[in-house]
Amino acid sequence: MESYEVAKVHTLSNIQGPPGTGKTFNAAVILHSLSQEEVGKIVATAPSNEAADNLAECLVKLNDRFKLRKRVIRIFSKSREKELLRSFGNGNLIHYFG
């Protein structure tokens, strides 16, 4: 995967494109692959809360599918705590900020 090879050699990578082109899935696969190589801590950002939620959810699903024990930490405001706990469940590590 070309995007993985680019992300592997650069400390900062950007994925962009129109809706429905697989950005979230590709980002999750890249992050998942990098985490398997023990490169250290990985930080991902997104342009909106919804995009960040989708990426975190995709990472949690990859963890579950491959029976991994990698932590997915989603930083969010206290006002969204109940909504996100419904989405991610108590089995995943979720922190709130503020």
What is the C-alpha radius of gyration, as a whole number of Å?
14 Å
Sketch the topology as an H/E string, one letter per element.
HHHEHE
Provide the structure class.
mainly alpha
Shape: globular
Number of strands: 2
Number of helices, where a helix is a run of at least 4 consecutive DSSP H or I residues? 4
Biggest sheet, spatial arrangement of strands: 1-2
**Helical residues, percent:** 40-55%
Poorly predicted runs are: none
Domain count: the total is: 1
Description:
By secondary structure, the chain is mainly alpha-helical. It has one domain. The protein is built from 4 helices and 2 strands. The longest helix has 17 residues, at 49-65. It starts with a helix and ends with a strand. The mean pLDDT is 80.
List keywords for this structure.
mainly alpha; two-stranded parallel sheet; 98 residues
Q: Could you give a quick summary of the protein structure above?
A:
This protein has 98 residues and is mostly helical. It is built from four helices and two strands; from the N terminus they run H-H-H-E-H-E. Helix 4 (81-88) links the parallel strand 1 (75-76) and strand 2 (95-96).
Topology readout:
Layout: H1 2-9, H2 23-36, H3 49-65, E1 75-76, H4 81-88, E2 95-96
Helix pairs in contact: 1-2, 2-3
